[in-house]
Structure formats: C-alpha cells, structure tokens
Amino acid sequence: MPDPASTPAQAGSLVTFGRYAGPATLILSSLADGAKHGYALTKDIEEFASVRLAPGTLYEALSRLESQGLIEALASEDRRRPYQLTVAGAQALRAHLADQRRVADVGLRRLARSWGPA
Amino acid sequence: MKRPADLAARRVVRLLRWYPASWRARYGEEFAELLLAELTEQPRSARRTANVIASGLLARCTAAGLTSHELPPAEQIQTGAATMCAAFAVFLTFGVAMLAQLATGWQWASPRSASAAAGTVAMCAGVAVLLLISLAAAVPVAWAVAVVAIGHRDGRLARPAGLALACAAALAIGTRHFQNSWPGTGGTGAHHHLVPAGLAAFGWAWTLSVSSFWAHPALLVIFPVAELIWMLLSPVAVIALVAALVTVVRRLALSGGLLRYLTQLAVAASAAAVPFLAGAASWVLGSGPGQAGLFRPGLVDGADLLMMALSLVVALRLSLALLHARRQLPAAD
C-alpha cells in the first residue's frame, strides 16, 4: 500500500521505494552507462559497490522501477532481457544522488571539524 | 546419472513455482536465465534460495493487492476486490459458525452474561449488514458475468462461473439436508429466539466442519457416516466456490463505475465486520465461567476469533489500498 504521506511531487522518485530504495539506486546507477540484463547488472553492481544483489531482490526492484517508468525493457536477447534507463529514471537518479551527496558532504564536513581531516 | 545442467534447470523450475503465474509470464524466462547463471557460478546457497522463496511469496502478495508495490489503479481494485472476496469468505465461515452456535443456544435459554448477549446481538446485526453488502456486490457482478459468459460465449469466464454455481448449489442442498437432522437445532418452541430457528440451523449445518471434534477423533464415531462425509466435503466445496469467485472477479473486465462501486462496498464491508468481530470478542473474552451449554466458549471459539481477526486485518489493509487506487482512476472512466 502506498505511503499516505507521499505527495505527487514524490511520484517517480526513489523515496517511495521503501526498503528497495537501496537496490533501486544501485540498479539505476548501473544502467546509467548503458543497458544491461539481470546477470550483467548483478556483476556490475558487485564490482562498483561491492554488494551482490540476490536474484529475488534484484527482480523485485526491477519490477518496481519498471512499473514506475524509471527503466524500460528492451527486446529480449535470447532468453535474457536487457533494461535501460528512461528520462524519468535519469532525473530520479540524479535527484536522489544529489540528496545523498548533500548528506555525505555535511557528514564529512562535520567529521573534519570535530575529528580532523581524514 | 543426470548432468549438472539438467539438475540446475530442474532446480530453477522448482524455484520459479514460488512466483505467481502472472509474474512468471512477464519475468519467468529472463529470471530463469539469471538463476541458471547464478547456479553455475555458485551451485549451493541457502541464502539465495531463501531470498528467491521470500521474493516469490512477496510477488504473490503483490498479485493479491497486499503490498506497497502499486499496480495500475484498475488492476489494483480488481485484484483487491478478488482478495477481499477470499478474506470475507474466511471471516464469514468462522463468524457464522460462531454465531450459529450462539443463536442455537439462545433458542434453549437466554445467555447469562451481558457480554454474551451484547456480543450475539452485535454479531447478528453485523452479519445482516455483511450479507446485504455481499448481495449488493453479487448482483451487478453476476449480471456482468452473464452478459460476457453467455452473451459473448467466453469460456474463460463461463467455466469458473459454472463451478461457482455448482458449488453453491451443492452447499445449499447439503446444508438444507443436514440442518434438519442435526440435534440441537430446530428450536424448542422458540420462546427465546433471537434468530429464526431455520436460519440458525442453516448456519450451523453450513459450517458443521468448523468443529472442536477434529481435536478429539475418537468422539467422531458418534456422528452418522453421512454427516462425517459432509464435514469433510463441505469445506472442499467452500474452497472451490471461493476460488471460482476469485477467478471470476479477476478475469471480468469491469467498468470504472463498477470498480468505484465495488470499492465503496468493500470498504463498507470492512467497517461492518469490525462490530461483528467486537461482538465475537465480547463473547469469547468477556464471558465468565458461569456460562452454560452453547454459551460456554471453548478453544475452537478462540481459534475462530483469531482467524476472523487475521482476515479482517487483511480486509482493512486492502480497503486502504482500494481507496488509494480509486482516487487514481481516470475521472472520465
């Protein structure tokens, strides 16, 4: 059931993904440099984030991203189907990563002030 | 000896069965490829198996309209209405079993505690409202089914609709037969009755299988063979009836107006079920040790109450999802 507090402005953003926001961010980041199918996504995410998404979690997040219009399926290659980022997906990823960068910047600044530079 | 590739393919097929058919139709092939690649890389992983099973069950809940994964509004309402149908079938089966016991007991003597009396009255009012709401939902849906199944000769609808009718007829005939032979029903001159004796007996015979006798198999020998067969077969007929109704509701192409109407009824039914459950809880939890005969709650009544509470939780959650989906339906539809 959708969060009653969610507003129209949040539609299509990763805020509404709940515990799938993390996997969704990883998938969108992986697709940012081109279309990939399920196994290629798993390997790419493992490489750049050191996180191995379990198959069930990967496809639950993929189906949510697809139903929100943030990614789209391409024609099947053999039995594997690649996915690519949509314009809405690119915007949602950009906004989400910018939010995360703001939080990271604040945290790093405060750490540097109180605990010294890394 | 089987080749590893064959074994892996068979494991993938087994794992895919945890997902609903609609999900498999959309993602099954590509998901199977991913699993095969994973199995090649790492043949055994309990964590991966658990993840796939959990995700499959989650996908089944999503297909029933029970998760936060939003479906398109019309699909959400239709799926939710079908699941609501199943939830209320469970609620009413256990609720009617409990009420039939109380209503039959009231024919012999009035209850001694205020909580049992108030609870029974609340349940009577609740079940009357729920039956009216069910009728209000069934009439337009049955009409729509008849138009499509008979008018357009649509077998995908006609078969489950025919099964539902056959099960309902078998249940009605069997119930009518056994209501007349069950000791304790039929009234005692009906000086105290709250519910007409025939109705109470019908409810009792309909839900004869909801019984504490299953916990005491040795005592089942006192039942005539025909009644034992009825106790075994009637739940099968109820399950088949509900499964057929759910299939009909999911397959029927419903207009926007009918979807809105069904949403209102579903929410009203959930609201009406709350005082019914409160009445049942008032009797089971509030009755003191002084209750006699059928007014003395037992373990089976506690189990009934639990099943009703669980099905009502599902119904209330669905109601919220239906209301949200209803707001998103296109205005012109």
SSE map:
The complex is a heterodimer of chains A (118) and B (333).
Chain A: H1 21-31, H2 38-49, H3 55-67, E1 71-73, E2 83-85, H4 87-115
Antiparallel strand pairs in A: 1-2
Helix pairs in contact in A: 1-2, 1-3
Chain B: H1 4-16, H2 21-41, H3 46-63, H4 73-108, H5 114-151, H6 155-179, H7 197-206, H8 225-251, H9 256-286, H10 299-328
Explain what this protein looks like in three dimensions.
- The complex is a heterodimer of chains A (118) and B (333).
- Chain A is mostly helical and 118 residues long.
- Helix content of chain A is 55%, strand content 5%.
- Chain A has a two-stranded antiparallel sheet with strand order 1-2.
- Chain A starts with 20 loop residues before the first helix and ends with a helix.
- In chain A, 32% of the residues are buried.
- Residues 1-9 of chain A have low confidence and may be disordered.
- With 333 residues, chain B is mainly α.
- Chain B folds into two domains: 4-63; 73-328, no CATH class.
- Chain B starts with a helix and ends in a 5-residue tail after the last helix.
- Chain A binds chain B through residues 1-4, 18, 37-39, 42, 54-60, 62-64, 67, 76, 78-81, and chain B through 23, 26-27, 29-35, 37-38, 47-48, 51-56, 58-59, 67-71, 317, 320-321, 324.
What is shown here, in short?
The complex is a heterodimer of chains A (118) and B (333). Chain A has 118 residues and is mainly alpha-helical.
Percent of residues in β-strands of chain A: 5-15%
* Structural domain count of chain A: 1
**Topology of chain B as a string of helices (H) and strands (E):** HHHHHHHHHH
Number of helices of chain A: 4
